[in-house]
Design brief:
Elements (H helix, E strand, L loop, with lengths): L1 H9 L2 E6 L1 H5 L18 H4 L2 H6 L1 H16 L5 H12 L2 E6 L5 H5 L4 E3 L2 E8 L5 E3 H9 L14 E5 L8 H13 L2 E5 L20 E5 L12 E3 L3 H8 L2
Bound molecules: 2'-O-acetyl adenosine-5-diphosphoribose (OAD).
Length: 240
């Protein structure tokens, strides 16, 4: 670990790509691990335009449960360690696939939320936004047609679903951060979802890439070093 700490201390630009494994440390389930199914449904069947068109209320029920879970969890030692590192490194970017806001809650400032955020809802038709909790409150109160928007569209979470493009400005900034980075940490992601995963490959970065994950992943073959450990066993040590 000593050599990695030295590389980080010497680096002017660091990019960290995170996935749901870092939030497992806070008690949230990962997508593909145990608990990765919801009522026997795969995430791809819920987090997709097709899933929403088929049963919008079911999809909102899923997000309602996840939002409640997010509200009751705290950032982990791993999230906090990244916020501490950001204070020391001149150019430090967290690119996250997570929608749980835990990096921001931990104090990270330069956070790119590639897959959106479970804080806001947006209209399917006109792109108006409102707090996600307002929609959940309307659903809970039994209001008539709580997910209908006046323009004729429907309220949906501001989250990138399967089959949808990433917000272009966020993706561009993430690609820039990957290109600039001298060291990249890849933490708690299976590396199965594109284009996020490819940011850690030679296509986008010339950085020294270190994976921190207890399991082998689709990115393992592409990284310079794999540390087979939990995020909270490694990151706090790097931020001492
Ligand atoms: P996955 O569930 O695919 O992968 C979670 C990864 O975290 C696995 O490789 C685990 O081994 C690892 N892991 C588990 N506990 C860990 C710990 N304590 N420390 C470090 N690593 C740990 O989740 P993601 O890669 O985040 O997209 O999934 C990517 C995207 O697929 C998500 O953003 C989501 C999902 O469908 C959307 O919702 C658009």
């Amino acid at each position: 670990m000593e050599d990695l700490a030295q590389r980080l201390a010497a680096a002017r630009s660091v990019c960290v790509l995170t996935g749901s494994g870092i939030s497992a440390e806070s008690g949230l389930p990962t997508f593909r691990g145990v608990g990765g199914l919801w009522r026997d449904r795969r995430v791809e069947d819920l987090a997709s335009p097709r899933g929403f068109a088929r049963d919008p209320h079911l999809v909102w029920t899923w997000y309602g449960e996840r939002r409640r879970a997010h509200r009751s969890v705290e950032p982990s030692a791993a999230h906090v360690a990244l916020a501490v590192l950001e204070d020391r490194i001149p150019d430090f970017t967290v690119v996250t696939q997570n929608v749980d806001s835990l990096h921001l809650l931990a104090g990270s400032r330069n956070v790119l939320e590639l897959h959106g955020k479970m804080r806001e809802a947006k209209c399917t038709r006109c792109d108006e936004r409102r707090p996600l909790d307002d929609v959940l409150d309307a659903l809970a109160s039994g209001a008539p047609d709580p997910i209908a928007h006046a323009c004729g569209g429907m309220w949906r979470p501001d989250i990138v679903w399967f089959g949808e493009p990433l917000p272009p400005n966020v993706l561009e900034r993430a690609i820039d951060a990957a290109r600039r980075a001298e060291v990249m940490l890849v933490v708690g992601t299976s590396g199965l979802v594109q284009p996020a995963a490819s940011l850690a490959t030679k296509r986008y970065t010339g950085a020294y890439v270190v994976e921190i994950n207890p399991e082998e992943t689709a990115l393992t073959a592409h990284v310079d070093r794999s540390i087979r450990a939990r995020a909270s066993d490694v990151l706090p040590e790097l931020a001492v």
